[in-house]
Amino acid sequence: MSSTTGLAPTAPARAAGSAAAHVVVVGAGVTGLLTAVACARAGHRVTVLERGPLPNPDATSHDQHRAIRTLLPGDPGGTARRLDAHRHWQDLEALFGTPLYRRVGTLTAHPEGRLDELLAEADRAGVPVDLPAERELPPLGLPPGTVGVRERTGGVLLADRVLHAAARWLATRPGVVLRPHSTVRSVFTGSGRIVLDTGEVLRGDLALLAGGPWTRRLADSPVTLHRQTMLYLGRPAGDDRWDGAPAAGGLGREGRGWVLPPGVGTLLKLSSDTVCRPVADTDSSGEDQRPYLERLAVEGVLPDLDRYPVVGVRVCHYTADAATGGPLLTRVSPGLWTRAACGGSGFSTAPLVAERIAEAVKEAA
Ligand SMILES: Cc1cc2nc3c(=O)[nH]c(=O)nc-3n(C[C@H](O)[C@H](O)[C@H](O)COP(=O)(O)OP(=O)(O)OC[C@H]3O[C@@H](n4cnc5c(N)ncnc54)[C@H](O)[C@@H]3O)c2cc1C
User: Fold this and answer.
1) Which residues line ligand 1 (CB under 6 A)?
2) Which one of 127, 143, 244, 352 is most buried, counting C-beta atoms within 10 A?
3) CB 242 within 8 A of CB 261
């Protein structure tokens, strides 16, 4: 959209000589809410626009849990950023004054032959790891020839509790305006002006589009939309082997399955990258989930899967950069940023996006 239509111009919010800026955030998922928190902590005025309730149960972020993993083999820069994210989560937990992060660690299956190399890399990166004995863990489908390596700087983020805690904290801050049921219709990419469904036009000193998989409706970006089917399981009766168990990945015959452990009122969640598929839109209402569930059942992610009661099935969407398959944070113009794609680790890395946007506000001052 061009910035030269006949809409009445709205004045930028920053008063001359004032260090405080006005930041407009579109979308109250984890990216939008943590960005609002970072900007409010830096002393800026913030407006959060969310099309549904706040937080919105339809947001990608609104789930029981998400994993945080820090060791990215072969990517020391990425590992350093993930360690930074891990520290941010501890800081946010202290700020909100409520448990949000189960530091149970993250276990990943690694080829036995490359174990020494991996342990050396973990040492260099400062990621504490260990190799738990099989008897310490619930039965996991580690592929043959692999060893489970547990990172201590990882675990499970209690995703929906994060959203509620952030929204509660923001609601108490002077200078923060939370606007649920405010749908953004379009955005002027040049000026960063935001047009709501009601016709209201808003402009801050900086705007971030953080609409999750729906961001692509507001700003054109080269992203691929993915859909994934997830299975929620209860524990087998009398089974306490999951107490304190880590999140685990690299499981199953193809080494692409993962599980998030149950605990503090959450279920066990299981899925695999093999059931992650590119789709055209976020409407999954007509899609038959049985082929994906059958696929998950035979993959061997949990060798004794038939012992676990199935509690629910859910599909979820995320976007990834079409070129790299990873995340995408773009500065469209001086006053407009877009989180065009979050990739598969967009929850755990949201504090880094929040920090980058708070820095961008400072740079623009
Ligand atoms: C199956 C699956 C498993 C995942 N596992 C992990 C994991 O283990 N670890 C991890 O770190 N990440 C994981 N992710 C990724 C992570 O969940 C997402 O990247 C993250 O939650 C995206 O957060 P967000 O705030 O950017 O978007 P969302 O949470 O989708 O929030 C966007 C918000 O914007 C609102 N909105 C949209 N359009 C408009 C509009 N026009 N006007 C106003 N509001 C609007 C929506 O209602 C919504 O509330 C996973 C994703 C999937 C799909």
Assistant:
1) 26-32, 49-52, 56, 58-61, 66-67, 183-184, 210-214, 218, 228, 230, 316-318, 339, 342, 344-348
2) 127
3) yes
